[in-house]
Write a structure and sequence with these properties.
Layout: E1 6-11, H1 17-25, E2 29-33, E3 40-48, E4 51-57, H2 69-81, E5 85-91, H3 95-108, E6 112-117, H4 119-124, E7 127-129, H5 131-138, E8 142-144, H6 153-165, H7 179-194, H8 204-212, H9 216-225, H10 227-248, H11 252-268, E9 273-275, H12 284-292, H13 297-338, H14 343-360, H15 363-379, H16 381-395, H17 403-411, H18 417-423, H19 430-439, H20 448-459, H21 464-488, H22 510-529, H23 531-544, H24 550-577, H25 585-608, H26 610-622, H27 629-640, H28 644-655, H29 666-672, H30 678-690, H31 695-705, H32 708-735
Parallel strand pairs: 1-4, 1-5, 5-6, 6-8
Antiparallel strand pairs: 2-3, 3-4, 7-9
The chain binds guanosine-5'-diphosphate and magnesium ion.
Residues 11, 13-19, 60, 117-118, 120-121, 146-148 line the site of guanosine-5'-diphosphate (GDP).
């Protein structure tokens, strides 16, 4: 440490900065002004082991946003002079409000020591603070002191000097500011990093945050330094700010403050503060928190709420779901009538309508689910659910911040692993982060839900909601066990404490709920309309080409003609007896025989196709799990996107079917197929839940983990794991008599 190392004292007004400053420096101090402003600048020396340390008493502030000249001065000093350590003085009798500034120091990523001042005052008010716990949760030293009597100040300075000497790489902490702001912050951060905009002085995320807070000083500097980028950032702020106003009736600044307080609350609620009296002064929100995060009641309430969400979704979506099914059947009928037989008709019916229809058919379900989630999220309950789960998560080597990525990925119902993987950015420990991003894809994402809904309808038609609820629990159990396995093997290491935001409860606005629901539903529809349409067509082509060789086609044609000629006499006789030849026994018999041949030909063609060959080859392995070649084709398609499993099954089975008039419900087709017995069903459900993440997620894992190896790992490991599990389930279920 250089002899002239600087240590700054910072804190709220009246937290005792000057008292501490005088205590430390005695008469070795002088008073000046900060250049250009009339704010007093006090500097002094503190002697330790023959070195002189400069102590600077910064102006007292409540925040680090440029609301006042004091704030600008304090902030500029911290950013430009980069003191070796900052002592953040907090008033222990008023900790919650004081930690608001602490939060911002942590977000700035500066070397910090917290002086927990006025513990004498706190004591007389019956407040006891567990400073070790506070220190562990914040990740910085916390020293209790009484500045006025000098108690603890030697200790404090020892710690501050140690921090100043330490080579620790202080990283800014990431507080989540809710989905909308987080997404914008990430985007802004990317742009800021790319152009190295103000990053010599501030962390990129911090600059982005200042844009969201409309910080006058940063805006001004920004406009001078980089016109185009600052315009871009301001436009992004405008967009998200309009959006927040529409959905939550609030501004980014208020949202940020809410989440900072939430962050503090989540720390203090962990038995950091024990207050002997004043219990009835607790706010309503705190009282609700006490109840819903109660060790025993909390989990019960949570399961009740989650189960209620399922009931809600399935009850309300039943009628519109039936309507969608009818609609697509009707549409198929129209297309069937207006298009001539041939490849084009097949493309429309089997590639496009069955494919996209299979996905769009679930829009009502998805919408009700998203609506339910939006209520939980907008009201603030979701964060409490995450808080509850933290205790469980720690057992499995994960972190409280892992909960949100799991929920985003579909931990409650619906969701997507792509934003889930991105949401792991809030995790500070790399190993905890990897363990999280490798297991989030085990959740039942919005793409898997309809597939699972279809399969549960086929196999467990009476208890659909209950089974899907159990599958959600199964997804969690498997994700946690696999995470534990990873944390004990390839990702072993110690865990870090839990810190996450508990935003205040709000009454969600109906408009906000509708917008949030629609945004997510629209994303799902867009995916169905673009990616899935493309892949659905590609798979249709793979399932159609190359067509049967001419000799085989001729053979089928020959069979048809044989049948027609063998009934020719009988039908001619029928002709003489009745006008309605088609309903004569001979005609009906002929018809059903022809249909059987059409079916056999379609099936032969599918088997002969590219996809059919791959699927058939895979039967060499999949006999272990009871999957036939058609199922294999669908599962291959599922790597592109999980929704495709339905559309491919639809295509595979209608291509293999005969009567074009009867596109039928896939559900019924499958339920009537003897191969689809409950044993195979359970194995298939398990396989679909846990095999390789979809293509988009893998790409995202590669990017976020920083190496293609983790992407490859997730594909190979998950598929191997899922297959083993499916094989075990299938064999065990057969053994127990579920094969019929
Ligand atoms: P500043 O605004 O942060 O510089 O705060 P000051 O140092 O001026 O202190 C504000 C008030 O708190 C003064 O009246 C101090 O005497 C009082 N004070 C400071 N530290 C303590 C402490 O540890 N215990 C008690 N009881 N009072 C304190
Ligand atoms: Mg003062």
């Amino acid at each position: 440490m250089p002899t002239q190392a600087k240590i700054a004292l910072a804190g709220n007004p009246n937290s005792g900065k000057t008292t501490l400053f005088n205590e430390l420096t005695g008469s070795r101090q002088h008073v000046g002004n900060y250049p250009g402003v009339t704010v007093e600048k006090k500097e002094g020396y503190y002697l330790v082991d023959e070195s002189r340390i400069t102590i600077v008493d910064l102006p007292g502030t409540y925040s680090l946003t440029a609301y006042s000249v004091e704030e600008v001065v304090a902030r500029d000093f911290l950013a430009n002079e980069k003191p070796a350590a900052v002592i953040n003085i907090t008033d222990a009798s008023n900790l919650e409000r004081n930690l608001y500034l602490t939060c911002q120091f942590l977000e700035l990523g500066i070397p910090l020591v917290i002086a927990l001042n006025m513990i004498d005052v706190a004591k007389t008010r019956g407040i006891a603070i567990d400073h070790d716990k506070l220190s562990a949760l914040l990740g910085v030293p916390v020293i209790p002191i009484i500045a006025r009597s000098g108690k603890g100040t030697a200790d404090l300075m020892r710690k501050a000097v140690a921090v100043a000497k330490e080579e620790r790489n202080w990283q800014p902490i990431h507080i989540s500011y809710g989905e909308d702001l987080d997404a914008t912050l990430l985007e802004m951060q990317d742009k800021i990093e790319k152009e190295n905009f103000l990053t010599e002085v501030y962390p990129a995320r911090w600059v982005a945050m200042k844009y969201l807070e409309q910080d006058s000083q940063i805006l001004e500097i920004g406009r001078r330094q980089n016109v185009s980028l600052s315009q871009e950032l301001e436009a992004m702020e405008k967009t998200v700010s309009d959006h927040l106003l529409k959905t939550m009736e609030t501004y980014p600044e208020a949202m940020i403050a809410d989440h900072r307080y939430g962050f503090i609350k989540s720390i203090l609620i962990q038995d950091v503060i024990n207050q002997r009296f004043d219990e009835d002064r607790l706010y309503i929100s705190d009282r609700i928190d006490k109840l819903v995060t109660n060790r025993f009641l909390g989990p019960l309430i949570m399961f009740g709420v989650l189960f209620g969400l399922y009931k809600f979704t399935f009850t309300f979506s039943e009628i519109p779901l039936g309507f969608m099914e009818t609609f697509f059947t009707w549409l198929g009928g129209i297309v069937d009538r207006i298009l001539p037989d041939g490849q084009l008709k097949s493309l429309f019916l089997s590639g496009i309508i069955d494919g996209v229809g299979g996905v769009l058919g679930f829009v009502p379900l998805i919408m009700f689910m998203f609506f339910g989630i939006a209520i939980l999220e907008d009201s603030g309950y979701l964060a409490r659910a995450a808080f509850m789960m933290d205790r469980i998560f720690r057992i499995f080597g994960l972190h409280g911040s892992s909960v949100m990525p799991f929920i985003v990925s579909g931990g409650i119902a619906g969701g997507c692993a792509v934003p889930g993987v991105l949401a792991t950015r809030t995790l500070r420990s790399r190993k905890e982060r990897l363990a999280t991003l490798l297991t989030v894809s085990f959740m039942n994402c919005g793409a898997k839900v309809p597939v699972l809904a279809l399969l549960t309808a086929v196999f467990f038609s009476e208890n659909q909601a209950r089974v899907l609820f159990l599958l959600t629990l199964l997804a969690w159990a498997v994700a946690l066990l696999v995470a534990k396995f990873l944390r004990l093997t390839v990702l072993s290491g110690k865990s870090t404490p839990f810190v996450m935001e508990l935003p205040p409860y709000r009454f969600p606005t109906f408009k906000g709920l509708l917008i949030h629901t629609w945004e997510r539903t629209w994303q799902y529809i867009k995916k169905a309309g673009t990616v899935i349409l493309g892949i659905s067509i590609l798979l249709w082509a793979m399932m159609t080409y190359p067509g049967l060789p001419a000799t085989e086609r001729d053979a089928f044609e020959q069979q048809r003609q044989n049948i027609v000629s063998s009934y020719a006499i009988e039908i001619a006789q029928a002709h003489q007896q009745t006008d309605n030849v088609d309903s004569s026994p001979a005609a009906l018999e002929e018809q059903s025989k022809l249909i059987a041949i059409d079916g056999a030909q379609a099936e032969a063609a599918l088997r002969f196709s590219l996809a059919g060959r791959i699927g058939t080859w895979l039967e060499n392995i999949t006999w272990l799990t009871g999957f036939d070649w058609r199922t294999n084709i669908a599962l291959l398609g599922g790597f592109a996107a999980k929704e495709i499993i339905i559309s491919t099954l639809g295509t595979a089975y209608s291509l293999g079917e005969v009567d074009p008039e009867e596109t039928g419900f896939l559900r019924e087709t499958l339920a009537n197929n003897p191969l689809w017995n409950p044993a195979m069903g359970m194995a298939l459900i398990a396989f679909i839940m846990f095999y390789t993440p979809c293509f988009a997620t893998v790409i995202c894992i590669v990017r976020e983990a920083g190496s293609w190896k983790w992407g490859l790992f997730s594909m190979v490991f998950n598929t191997f794991f899922a297959f083993t599990l499916a094989a075990l389930i299938y064999r065990l279920a057969l053994f127990m008599g579920f094969g019929g």
